Amino acid sequence: MSQVGKIRFGLVGGGEGAFIGPIHRMAAELDGQAELVCGAFSADPERARRSGVEQYQLPADRCYASYQAMLAGEQERPADKRMQFVIIATPNHLHFPMAQAALASGFAVVCDKPLCLSVQQAEELRDLQQRQHVPFAVTYNYSGYPMVRAARQLVAVGTLGSIRRVQCSYLQGWLAQAQPDNKQAQWRTDPQTAGGAGCFGDIGSHAEQLLSFVTGLSITRLCADLNTFVPDRALDDDGTVMLQFAGGAKGVLTASQIAVGCENDLSLAVYGERGSLEWRQAEANSLLVHELDQPLRVHRAGGPGSTAAVAPTRLPAGHPEGYIEALATLYQEFISELQGLGPGDYPGLEDGVRGMQFIEKVVESSTRGAQWVDVA
Amino acid sequence: MSQVGKIRFGLVGGGEGAFIGPIHRMAAELDGQAELVCGAFSADPERARRSGVEQYQLPADRCYASYQAMLAGEQERPADKRMQFVIIATPNHLHFPMAQAALASGFAVVCDKPLCLSVQQAEELRDLQQRQHVPFAVTYNYSGYPMVRAARQLVAVGTLGSIRRVQCSYLQGWLAQAQPDNKQAQWRTDPQTAGGAGCFGDIGSHAEQLLSFVTGLSITRLCADLNTFVPDRALDDDGTVMLQFAGGAKGVLTASQIAVGCENDLSLAVYGERGSLEWRQAEANSLLVHELDQPLRVHRAGGPGSTAAVAPTRLPAGHPEGYIEALATLYQEFISELQGLGPGDYPGLEDGVRGMQFIEKVVESSTRGAQWVDVA
Amino acid sequence: MSQVGKIRFGLVGGGEGAFIGPIHRMAAELDGQAELVCGAFSADPERARRSGVEQYQLPADRCYASYQAMLAGEQERPADKRMQFVIIATPNHLHFPMAQAALASGFAVVCDKPLCLSVQQAEELRDLQQRQHVPFAVTYNYSGYPMVRAARQLVAVGTLGSIRRVQCSYLQGWLAQAQPDNKQAQWRTDPQTAGGAGCFGDIGSHAEQLLSFVTGLSITRLCADLNTFVPDRALDDDGTVMLQFAGGAKGVLTASQIAVGCENDLSLAVYGERGSLEWRQAEANSLLVHELDQPLRVHRAGGPGSTAAVAPTRLPAGHPEGYIEALATLYQEFISELQGLGPGDYPGLEDGVRGMQFIEKVVESSTRGAQWVDVA
Amino acid sequence: MSQVGKIRFGLVGGGEGAFIGPIHRMAAELDGQAELVCGAFSADPERARRSGVEQYQLPADRCYASYQAMLAGEQERPADKRMQFVIIATPNHLHFPMAQAALASGFAVVCDKPLCLSVQQAEELRDLQQRQHVPFAVTYNYSGYPMVRAARQLVAVGTLGSIRRVQCSYLQGWLAQAQPDNKQAQWRTDPQTAGGAGCFGDIGSHAEQLLSFVTGLSITRLCADLNTFVPDRALDDDGTVMLQFAGGAKGVLTASQIAVGCENDLSLAVYGERGSLEWRQAEANSLLVHELDQPLRVHRAGGPGSTAAVAPTRLPAGHPEGYIEALATLYQEFISELQGLGPGDYPGLEDGVRGMQFIEKVVESSTRGAQWVDVA
Fold first, then answer.
1. Rounded to the nearest 5°, which phi and psi values hold at B330?
2. What are the Cα distances from residue D128, in Å, to B366, D103, D112, D136?
3. Whether the Cβ atoms of residue A311 and residue A345 lie closer than 8 Å to each other
């Protein structure tokens, strides 16, 4: 079935009506080095088969009725036909059992964020992965944007000097009202499927990873004030967290899903002794860079000013690449590792574990009346 | 000296090398209804005289050596020559004695912000003004921008519905390093002249007034984490405050003077049940307005969409008005009140008192380890 | 080889070092409905094979040494294995013979722009296609952007009223200096490979199609002043064209490849009696819409305000899609036609012919001293 | 009446309902070095008096019934009371007789643009001024913006290298419909009061001056296609002009008053061999600067990067100054010349004459069917 030399993967989730599963397929295949060969696209076996055959153009025998069946079925295939990694693109509560089973079966894993439902689960996955020696990526996709990587590089080479202030904000408005008929809304606002945090599990977690990815700083203490503005909603849909970092930097992280009019407004600003940078996902291909007593410089994806801004682009500057391309860059790094080309530069279980710690501490702080809590 | 019918005013501060004093003169005179007739421009008598004669083109006998001399000298003049109000544009620690003396002498007062050094002083001024029955403005100048007034109107008429989240940020970078030779920096970072807060007295106070002016909400609790990043600086130069409002809204206010690359980046975003708005001083003539399930609308100063966006403009849409014009609008309102045209729409001692309460509570919270404190 | 049900295609061009060929592959495959099965990736047989096997992961027997070999080889394959369309992504001078041969062999064709080297060639291809009854797309990719389609819809439903002024500008800076070592620059500035126009063949042609696509207006007369600023360059690298349209509208089209600092700055503005719109590729997911006496509205890809802005998106509003996704939308339309789902909405030979007429007339006008010429 | 040492001026025009006259008063007085002392505010004597006394707070004897009366009345006053310059802020057709009479009476003149109705008139004024040796400013106010002056400096010091392409566009939408009740519209669209050009006299003339001011280039040939889109309008309301400059640069100038949604959108872009710059009045305090192979730099009014961007500011960077301040900078330069402080840097009769040549040639070209014409 598969083309010569392409890395083969399976997909869990992504069936009819899914949002992110099909995007994972696009991103994983974008650079032409990998190919979807199988899937467990739905918990409903008939729907799973139909999605696989009609939506993904797969043969019926690679459309499995469950992830367990897929893992078992693929293990039985000859090594040169078998899937080589599995993408987990399901509601949060399924990440842990699926990732655990996939690792136990020896498959490399790409898992959506947040990694799972608790720090304990996260640490189990980390330990298991270390025993199994297979790659594991957590798709904090914003870390795949060229200008986010350029930002990380600028911090790393010291352009900003010692960091003083970090601001990260992730604002959406789509949950400003109850959304009883929206499947995506349902599982994200249900503790059974989303876990202990709503907005902070869904997007606050992205913000935490983005700021950690770019700055390399460790959060030592936080104070979180979470809110649930929409009546009868069980989980937070908004909140602010004040942050203190090792080394003395301070920060604030805001996340909201009730910010009417905001689409998917993720932004990061980092201020250091000698310089600062600012990035907004809405203008993902630009990075604003200030140095003391210099005019603002606008670094651009594919443009001059930063090697890191060029590496993960597919097109010359001025030909916008977006969300799918950013996710594809994480896959490119992951796949190149599977191809034996050395370790890939993608978020893994360290990010996954740290992300669960962040979520747990945010919920703990807020539950205790927005008191400061230490972060390990 | 003065032209027929113009309101006459004096200026305290604003001598050679001053920043904001000359701007007050420009703003007060911009609309042609008032005229500078005297001043106490410097604590150094020779400098005061020279500034008045050479910079402000005043006759020597209206250039006073002290504010006390000015108040006395003007009181002795005939009513149709005497100054009618005094502008206090000095370092913070002088606001209280000067305003107190001016009120006691029966003069109307325009005083720069923050009003004074303590809530107690602020309340004294408020009480004194109520006894003297003279107008008193506190120049929170950002409330003079047309689109800030349009924002207030949108909130007031219910376009946003009940407010849930308020974000206000005021970032500057000019104090990112020690500024031993900068007079403006010196007094703002010295507790003797600036009071108990540095950054939060200087610009955090503007942010508080802006969000209160637009939303009409009352802060009930706050949690502030202030920082002093530059070595040997005595006062805060940065900080974040989490806010809780009467009625359940939440907010975050950030102010910094060490945000390298930021010029004077004041921004406000307000999110309600049904709509939101966003304003940035850097693009002061635009107001972004979202309503549920509608495309973003950009209201413009002088343009369609809001009567409040037109009233305080002097030019058709597209001819930018700026900081001086915003301040001039406050003066226009103040002067029209002096002309007997009814109460003006400008910030007064209520804002001044509330501003001092905010500053005191922010400092108290931060000093106690960034604990939540109640705000009266 | 191919997956069940996917449409199979071949690629001419796109070998090592190519820019646009690999992008065509990504775009054609993005939505999971088509699959590259063969190619003639280079005029150098060894390079062609290596590109196919290593870059595209194809079996060696589907990596052909020439497009002629590919057409012949694929025709011999069984119908359910054979490629179903061919993508021509080569320098301009090869478009005509390749497209002609592909059509003659009965293959559907996707050809890059400009279609060929002359109006005569273009008309030959159009006539041949009409006889062969196979789909033919010309990849004017900017017409795949959601907000370009939303713009077309707004014009079509009359939001702007009768159109008065059209402005289209396409500015790049990468050819501001001679580029002797840049393969992409070489063929674009060589009349043997690029045809009679340089900048206007390469990007002026995009601008013409974009404005025609959105407005539906026909150019009746034009006056072009082309320039060659870089010494020893054989073709135009810059120019301005004044336009007159049937019905009385006027316009101006500017294209340049010597505009230092411009990346790929394509923009369109259309002004009508009652409204106007503005689109810039650099912010491809926004469309500015003005109506008389209304505030500016910003329509967004995937957002409210226009069905046409939602249809061609893969992600919710605020998750940026870019250049590859726009091109993929053209492929999606083309492939759905091949799947028998009715006529696709993509630029075809009518656009290709009109584009060649435009180029010829622009060159004619400029050569005659920037005189007005009639356009048929 | 006037303050010690202030320069005294009179104003012609600017009475009740006027737009630009009051703005001239604000701008002239902004920096505290000049004072309005008299005026001929309207052709209607009663209205003239009322405007002067009520709007401008002047004594009745300085409110003249005509400009002739004002010139005569002021000449009779003692030298230390007499006005020192006169501002002409009337419809275009009055500029010439008023300026001529003022010069003949020995007064310095500030005249709005366009200078008059013909090149011949313009040259007469120039000759007369040279005989009278008094300063004469033409208020092309956009040349007072700090970033326009910074742009001129960047060109002058060679940052862009030899200039290749110049684009200037001035778009408004307020005349997209007939405006029978709008006094500002009436005289601007009436050949008796506006002269031979409508849109190009009113705003095209600004665009010509702006590009000449910044680039220093001379137009040698032009080809203009003017339009009158609104029925029954007598003058152009829209048009495009292709430009050729001495030295080989090319350009395009667009002006429109029917561009629905455009407020006052003046923009300039200049592309040279080694760099480029872009300025937009809507973001007047920023200047975009590109140099080959460098990231975009954004120079800011009052910010680092250019001495010319700091000199004409009154406030630190980030405190927006706008249209009035830009005009005030021209007055500052003019007034400082009157104060004997050396020649001021403001547009004068050379700009005025060149502007009339431009208008005449544009009309001539368009009238001849948009043919190329030589510009002296």
1. -60, -45
2. 71, 7, 18, 11
3. no
pLDDT of chain C, 376 residues: tens digit per residue: 345 689 999 999 999 888 899 999 999 999 999 999 999 999 899 999 999 999 999 999 999 999 999 999 999 999 999 999 999 999 999 999 999 999 999 999 999 999 999 999 999 999 999 999 999 999 999 999 999 999 999 999 999 999 999 999 999 999 999 999 999 999 999 999 999 999 999 999 999 999 999 999 999 999 999 999 999 999 999 999 999 999 999 999 999 999 999 999 999 999 999 999 999 999 999 999 999 999 999 999 999 988 888 889 999 999 999 999 999 999 999 999 999 999 999 999 999 999 999 999 999 999 999 999 999 8
Q: How far is the CA of C205 from the CAs of C320, C356, C358, in angstroms?
A: 26, 8, 8
Provide CB contacts within 8 A for B335, sequence distance 6+: B7, B28, B31, B33, B34, B344
CB contact residues (below 8 A), chain B span 56-95, against chain D: 56-59
How many other CB atoms are found less than 10 A from the CB of residue C80?
Answer: 7
- Residue D300 to chain A, least CA–CA distance (Å): 7
Distances (CA, A) of C317 to A15, A173, B290, C320: 21, 11, 14, 8
Burial of D102 (0-12, 13-18, 19+ CB in 10 A): buried
Distance between first and last Cα of chain A: 48
Cα C345 from Cα B166, distance rounded (Å): 45
Structure tokens at A348: 């893994």
Nearest to D258 among C227, C259, C271 (CB): C271
Name the residue among A223, A229, A288 with its Cβ closest to that of B370. Answer: A223
Pair D265, D284: CB distance under 8 Å = no
A225 CB within 8 Å of a chain B CB: yes
Whole-structure pTM value:
0.97
3-state secondary structure D30-71: HCCCEEEEEEECCCCHHHHHHHHHHHCCCCHHHECCCHHHHH
The type of residue at A22 is: P
Q: Is A292 on the interface with D (CB under 8 A)?
A: no
Contacts of C142 (CB under 8 A, 6+ apart): C148, C206, C209, C210, C266, C281, C326
Using the CB atoms, write b or e for C108-142: b if 16+ within 10 Å.
bbbbbbbbbbbbebbbbbbebbeebebbbbbbbbb
D167 chain-C contacts, CB cut-off 8 A: 254
Joined together, the tokens standing for residue C237 give: 């690298």
How far, CA to CA in Å, does A18 sit from each of A86, A174, D221? 17, 17, 61
Inter-chain residue contact A295 with D295, CB threshold 8 Å? no
ipTM field = 0.96
Length of chain D: 376
Instruction: Please confirm whether the linkage preceding A114 is cis (ω < 30° from 0).
Output: yes
For the four alpha carbons of C205, C206, C211 and C214, in that order, the dihedral sign comes to: positive
C271–D290 CB contact, under 8 Å: no
Identify which of A132, A143, A365 has the alpha carbon closest to the alpha carbon of residue A236: A365
Cα–Cα distance, A226 to A223 (Å, whole number): 10
The answer, for D372 touching chain C at a CB cutoff of 8 Å, is yes
Contact B304 C297 (CB under 8 A): no
Strands (E), chain D: 7-13, 34-40, 85-89, 108-111, 136-138, 163-171, 219-227, 238-245, 250-256, 265-272, 275-280, 286-291, 296-300, 372-374
